[in-house]
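Appendix B. Raw example, untouched.
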Amino acid sequence: MARPRMSGFSQTDVSAPSTDSLSKTRPANGRFRERYILSETTALQGALNQGLSALAARLLNEAHGAIHAGQLVQARSLFVRAVELDRGAGARNAYGCFLLDRGSHREAVDLLQVALCRAQRDGDPRAVAIAASNLACAYRGIGVPALAMAWQQQALKAAHSTGEPAPAEADFAADLHNRANDALIQGDYELARTLFCLDGSTSQANGDECTRADNRGSLGVLAGLCGDLSEAVRCLRQAYRKHRDLPGCEMQAVGDLLNLAEIRRLEGSWRTAERLLKLAMRRLGKQGDAGIVQQVRTRLAEARQTRSVLGHDPQRN
């Protein structure tokens, strides 16, 4: 995505991908979304403040402060109030990013669709690009890679329409990471590796610690899918330690734990997998989306049952 050019942009330049055709496309890797959690790099949350009232802007700042303080219920309330005051895309995009970070992908879609429409109405191609990119993140989370890729393409189209010679580095890193995720889901591991490496180099130059941690976690997932389990463990441990210590990265840390548990499951280390899943559940607390909480519970029950079966002596029957 690039810096905005405020003229020469038509609402018809970006339209919603056709769900009639795309919904018929099945994911290339059917069990990918069931077993791994990707670290999504969402677009810049503070980039859409044009037209915000002073009160709405203050509410958004307070919401982000509440997130960093771990006060997520208060943060949600502040986002809702900011959305009610904002006639543009900014507050909805920020709230949508909050929901994406919590794993509430379906709820985020509704907000981001409205943010996209507001950005199109205002003739702001940068805001359109950000909303479309975040919609791509939401559809990856839901598990519809075809729609995710279509929205990512729409984001790039909108970004190119700004006429700027090059995207901002942080936006460029986000695009690289998101396109790498699409390649990963579709099973094009070589392309994914290339894009993740480019993303890592860009993030290193930017000094963005959370994005660097996202990158390490994604490389861990890639290594796991390629069968290099020791490398997967190494990368995911690094990602978890970084995410764990960074404010606002709690859900990414949970994702690292779930991915580590999956790798340990593949190794046959069910006791370790169970321990990691318990830690993920504790870290989730009350802040995670209900779907993610249920996913952790299901995996934990699976790990306990398998460990119990493997530890059972059949001669005692």
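End of appendix B.
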